[in-house]
Design a protein that fits this description.
The protein is built from 3 helices and 2 strands. By secondary structure, the protein is of the alpha+beta class. It has one domain. Helix 2 links the parallel strand 1 and strand 2. Strands 1-2 form a two-stranded parallel ribbon.
């Protein structure tokens, strides 16, 4: 049995890890973040630039935690002013 150690948010030996192990690690990391921060929404890069294991983990875990996941399209960083217009209930999808 292999145990993941998260000290700084990265799994040990991530360069040599399988996508499954990285997905489990990202999912566990998000659970820890949720425990302490309780985010209303999480924004991620939803474009092909992001690792697929990361997106799969966050899609699955945010659904399980009941947290809104907002996947931003490619080049979204060019225009994020719309985000300042949203209140917490908008971000939470309620």
């Amino acid at each position: 049995m292999e145990i993941l150690t998260l000290l700084d948010g990265r799994p040990d030996f991530s360069v040599h890890s399988s996508d499954y192990r990285m997905e489990v690690s990202a999912s566990a990391g998000l659970s820890h973040i949720n425990t302490f921060v309780h985010p209303q929404a999480i924004l991620v890069d939803g474009s092909s630039a992001e690792d697929q294991f990361f997106l799969r983990a966050f899609r699955d875990r945010t659904g399980w935690l009941g947290v809104t996941l907002i996947e931003l399209p490619e080049n979204a960083e060019q225009n994020l002013m719309w985000l300042t217009e949203l209140d917490s209930s908008s971000l939470n999808g309620k």
